[in-house]
Amino acid sequence: MKIKVLIVDDSALIRSVMTEIVNSQPDMEVVGVAPDPLVARELIKQKNPDVLTLDVEMPKMTGLDFLEKLMRLRPMPVVMVSTLTERGSEITMRALELGAVDFVTKPKMSIQSGMLEYTELIAEKIRVASRARIRAAVPRTPVTDKAAAEEPLPMIKNPLTSSEKLIIIGASTGGTEAIKEFLIRMPSDCPGILITQHMPEGFTTSFAKRLDGLCKISVCESQGGERVLPGHAYIAPGHSHLLLARSGANYVTQLDKGPPVNRHRPSVDVLFRSAASCAGKNAVGVILTGMGKDGAQGMLEMRNAGAYNFAQDEETCVVFGMPREAIAVGATDEVAGLTELPARVLNYLATNSTRSLRV
User: Fold this and answer.
1) According to the model, what pLDDT value does residue 204 have?
2) What are phi and psi of 335, to 5 degrees?
3) Which of 139-143, 158-162, 187-191 shows the lowest mean pLDDT across its residues?
4) Is the N end or the C end of the chain the one with fewer CB atoms within 10 Å?
5) 30 pairs with which residues across the strands?
């Protein structure tokens, strides 16, 4: 059975190009196109598509408003089509919070030729979305500042040395929400955290700013050369690999614009391998939801160097690709649901360190 795709975009050119891309694939077909959400609503009822591609900004009803109603009334896999602008990235972050599986960006120049270059990427994202675990949106009280963050974890009585320990995280599809759920539960004096999330340049800036406003810890897009401090998280920018390095007695961040690894830059494998060589047993690895196998071999190197590693379980993953690959190669020590992972990580750190933790 071919994957049935409905394309929703107010641009006739984008609808035409997206139709060409989808129909060029042997395992998918366009079952309808819509210039706005009102037409899309009727086509969803008639065509029962497997995946929806949705423009973030449209007339009559915005993509966000439509997505919110859709995920509440008829949850289905949605891939957002976004612009490479600050506003576009902020809207996309909100769309992922509302339940969109993933997003693709419109090229800045020569839309038709640019989109055709993205054929493989777009097709792969649609395939992954068709297999993604979709849940109905659950209304939650908006969090507007650090003081209103999630309830803290129970007091950990065992000691912790957050200045020596590090948490190293990798994620892809579904990872923006998984990372948010993980970081929002981190206490203000947790170990320094380095994160690679597969995301284009520009979107990582909005992602970091959003998290910084929600979490007790400080979150930033890494600029390279920062000293890794407790209570801080550093996110790989979309244009570079993020690495952990040493400067004397301190851990520091390092950026590398080298070629993609596993088709990604930033790559989780690059971050994990740097943690293996620099931190060894002082590192704790966490691999979250995502398609592909990026991170599996790097996490294995971390484990061989003495690190203790966690993987998100299949039940709570949007896409159980990267965690499955890490588990398959023997790179993980524990597998847990997303809501359990923060406590599991902190409890492990607490029993393997030497200073009390405040929460």
Assistant:
1) 94
2) -125, 130
3) 158-162
4) N
5) 5
Quick check: 357 pLDDT over 50? no
Strand partners, 243: 254
Domain that holds residue 18: 3-131
Residue 18 has which token pair?
Answer: 């997206």
Alpha-carbon distances, residue 78 vs 115, 197, 232, 287 (angstroms): 18, 19, 32, 23
Q: Is residue 128 classed exposed, middle or buried when 0-12, 13-18 and 19+ CB atoms within 10 A define those classes?
A: buried
Sign of CA dihedral 301, 229, 170, 87: negative
Q: Which token pair is 9?
A: 């975009």
Question: What are the φ/ψ torsions at residue 248 (nearest 5 degrees)?
Answer: 65, -125
Q: H or E stretch including 109?
A: none
Domain finish residue from 75, 106, 131 = 131
Closest among 106, 101, 131, 132 to 118, alpha carbons compared: 106
Catalytic residue numbers read 172, 198, 294
Read off the pLDDT of residues 333-353 as tens digits, 9 standing for 90 and up: 999 999 999 999 999 999 886
Q: Could you give the CA distance from residue 15 to residue 248 in angstroms, rounded to a whole number?
A: 55
68 and 177 inside one domain? no
Residue ranges with strand state E in 84-191: 102-106, 166-171
